[in-house]
Write a structure and sequence with these properties.
- By secondary structure, the protein is mostly helical.
- 20% of the residues are buried.
- It is built from 13 helices and seven strands.
Length: 274
C-alpha cells in the first residue's frame, strides 16, 4: 500500500470503511431506487440489517470516543447522507419519496435493533419484522360487558414478538423520541379529534389526491399510502357500507338541534322554506 493509499484509508469514516468491504447495502439500495411497490415489504428488512451491521461496526471502531450507550451519539443525518451517497441519490434533483421512506424507516429500525435487541427481530430471508407486542402496541382496548362506553384502554404487558407492518416503526420511533405519548396522542391530535369537520374535509382532499396520483402512476402516491392507510381505508369502506352508517345518515336528516342547544328534536318536514 502506497503512502497516498494509506492516507485515504485514514480519512475514511467507519461507515465508509464498512460499505467498502460489504457490498450488500449498496446492492439493496440500488434495487430500492428502481422499485416502489414492493420495497417496503421485501427490501426494507434487508436494508435495515445491513445498516444495523454498519452501526455496530461504527460503534466498535469508535468505542473509545463514545460516552453514551449504543446509538445515542450516532448522527442519523450522517447515516442518511452516507446511504444517499452510496447510490448517488440527490433528493433535490430526483425526488423519490418511496426510497426516502424506506431509508428513514430502515435507519430507525436498525437503531432500535442495536439499542434493544430483545425487542426486535428481523427475518431478512423472509422479509418480515417482529417486535415485542407491548412496544408495538403500548395500549390495547379492553371490552367491558354490560357497561356504558363499552371499552377502555389498558397497558399491553405482553412480551411476545409479533409481526408488524412498516408503519409501526414510525410510531415507535416517535414514542421513543418523545414526539408522542404511549397512548398515541398529542395536543394537536386531541384538537383534530375534536374537530370532525376538519378531519372529514382533510380526508376527502387527501383521498382524492391519492386517487389522482395512482391514476397518473406517480411515485408520490407511496408517500401518502402505506399498509396502515390501506387498513384504515378498508375499515372506512366497511363502515360506509354498513347499516350503522345509513342509520347515522338518517339521524342527520331526520333530527336537528333543539332551540336550547342541548337536545335533539325530530325535524318538521312539513315546513317549507320560502
Amino acid at each position: 500500500m502506497t503512502k497516498e493509499e494509506k492516507k485515504e484509508v485514514l480519512k475514511a469514516t467507519p461507515f465508509e470503511t464498512f460499505t467498502d468491504k460489504n457490498g450488500n447495502l449498496k446492492r439493496y439500495l440500488n434495487l430500492a431506487l428502481k422499485n416502489t411497490r414492493e420495497i417496503m415489504k421485501v427490501l426494507l428488512p434487508k436494508i435495515a440489517v445491513e445498516i444495523q451491521k454498519m452501526i455496530e461496526f461504527h460503534i466498535e471502531k469508535t468505542k473509545g470516543n463514545i460516552q453514551t450507550d449504543k446509538t445515542k451519539i450516532i448522527n442519523e443525518k450522517a447515516i442518511r447522507e452516507h446511504i444517499y451517497n452510496l447510490v448517488g441519490y440527490v433528493a433535490k434533483e430526483e425526488k423519490n419519496g418511496a426510497f426516502e421512506t424506506v431509508v428513514y424507516r430502515a435507519i430507525n429500525l436498525a437503531k432500535m435493533k442495536v439499542d434493544t435487541p430483545d425487542q426486535i427481530e428481523i427475518d431478512e430471508k423472509n422479509s418480515k419484522i417482529f417486535m415485542m407486542s407491548k412496544v408495538a402496541t403500548p395500549m390495547i382496548e379492553q371490552k367491558l360487558k354490560g357497561q356504558k362506553g363499552g371499552t377502555k384502554k389498558v397497558p399491553n404487558l405482553s412480551t411476545e414478538l409479533v409481526e408488524i407492518n412498516t408503519g409501526v416503526i414510525d410510531v415507535v420511533n416517535k414514542i421513543r423520541s418523545g414526539k408522542i405519548t404511549k397512548g398515541g396522542t398529542t395536543k394537536d391530535a386531541k384538537m383534530i379529534a375534536n374537530n370532525f369537520k376538519a378531519i372529514s374535509k382533510a380526508f376527502f382532499v387527501n383521498f382524492d389526491k391519492a386517487i389522482t396520483l395512482a391514476n397518473k402512476k406517480d411515485v408520490k402516491f407511496f408517500d401518502m399510502v402505506d399498509e396502515n392507510v390501506w387498513q384504515s381505508l378498508s375499515n372506512t369502506f366497511t363502515l360506509f357500507n354498513s347499516k350503522a352508517y345509513q342509520d347515522m345518515r338518517n339521524f342527520s336528516e331526520d333530527y336537528e338541534v333543539s332551540i336550547n342547544g342541548t337536545d335533539v328534536i325530530k325535524k318538521d318536514k312539513s315546513k317549507k322554506i320560502a
